[in-house]
Amino acid sequence: MDLFSAQYPFVFCSLASGSNGNCYYIGNGEEGILVDVGISLRSIRKRLSEIGVGISRIKAVFVTHDHTDHIKGLAALTMQQTIQVFASSETIMAIQKNPDCHGISADCLFHLNDRETVKLAGLGIENFSVSHDAPGASGYYIRNSHNSITIATDLGYISEKVAGYLKKSTIVVIESNYDEEMLQKSRYPRYLRERISGGIGHLSNRQTSDFLADHIAPHMSHIFLCHLSKENNHPELALKTLEHTLRQRGKSTDTTLIRALPRGARTEPFYFS
User: Fold this and answer.
1) Domains parsed from the chain with CATH numbers
2) What is the pLDDT of residues 237-247, one digit of tens each?
3) Which own/partner pairs from 159-167 qualify as long-range (CB within 8 Å, at least 24 positions apart)?
4) pTM
């Protein structure tokens, strides 16, 4: 199969999104990859099978960082079948030290340099660094001949580098983790509130909405809000914040579908020709 072949569709499905686990499938109709495996292998198998994808058709896993909600199923997956795991060098080293990843063979771990592209399953997958309190945290820009998706999750702010990938994508998956007022009124201790809202924490609804309102464009067919906090956010509020900000800036969403990704369940698969 040639890279960027127009013969195959571009498929995206969120298998889980949130602090309880994150896992995204991107494929071409025949095979694909996973970005993060923060849910159990059993759940991954089940949710993939529900959209007609066997686990054997997963060619690689691309890990954003080593927090449990992004790597929970990694050890079980790599021990049950031969699969490549890609991540930044710092994340690979953190995975090897993480007790949740005991048993993962070094032979299946592949180091990525910043902005390095891997060609798999008819896709080009490029990583980029993000600001988060995990070693070597990354986002991913994935494309074929006609479509591209940027997954930018777990980041304290949107750098110029991250913004560049988001702005050129046809599909945007961006964190909208917390509502600022809910976080400040939460039972979280002060240090945790400051960690979440700091420059190496997470994006708030306001930060994400401000960015999208400034940069939404007709070529963006879909915007998915991801990694919503269970305690300090809810989908309706994240969407309402974005819709209000877009309306204030006079921005139209006539050509863009906007969704908040569910926490503990998969979405339907989205097909892009």
Assistant:
1) 10-272 (3.60.15.10)
2) 999 999 999 99
3) 159/130, 159/131, 161/128, 161/129, 162/128, 162/130, 163/211, 163/215, 165/126, 165/128, 165/139, 165/141, 166/211, 166/215, 167/215, 167/217
4) 0.95
